[in-house]
Amino acid sequence: MTGSEPRHAAGESVEERLAEEVIEELDLHEVDDEEPLPSMSEQIADQLGGVRGLIESSLPVLVFVILNVVLGDAVLGLDKRTALYWAIAGSVVSAVGIGVFRLMRKQPVRHAVNGLFGIAIGAFLAWRTGEAKDFYLPGILLTFGQAAVLLVSVVIRKPLIGYAWGIMANKGHQDWFGNARLFRTFQWLTLVWVVSLSARAGIQYYLWALGEANALGIVRILISWPIYAATFAFTAWAIHRVTSEQKAAPA
Fold this sequence. Notes:
9 helices
């Protein structure tokens, strides 16, 4: 009878009805409008921690430079090792303080932890050798290592900038290998990063070899981050130009 017909269609199986009920209960219906990913520029800014992240990552280095200069021969005239130990302590305390402050405000501490790890290695090395310049050596070697890895990726035709773009701006898809122009763009952009990182590390290594610890700290603060940010901005612009032109091109 028509009036007594069940709510579900007559031909619908028990399994199908159960599946519908589970989907409704767990709210597993497909969403038509998928939330768009943040732009590559926004994700880059997030990876860098924004302006605040740059300031926080530079603060322990700035504290180290200031204390080493003020407490050393230049101002108060403490002996070299005493000034160095106070500079190391100030740098580590400032890095820990940044992390604690973020925890108290329930903010992400990823950048603070990364910074503390790097500061701790440099501080330990400087403490062991008694040379303020060695505070910066781990960062110099790490930057050279990054440049080497990127160069290898170009040589084997697996440019890492392409993989980074796929993760950050292409929803994890690495389909750019089939796009000849985009592949070439990632190849030369990866080389741009090799040059950028090598320049940063090379300038710092030159000052390290001269034993100019204070100049090395100042260069790291005033030159390294601007170079890094400029390279990021250029990368985002170059990729956006290519992808925009290809989208606008007639099929």
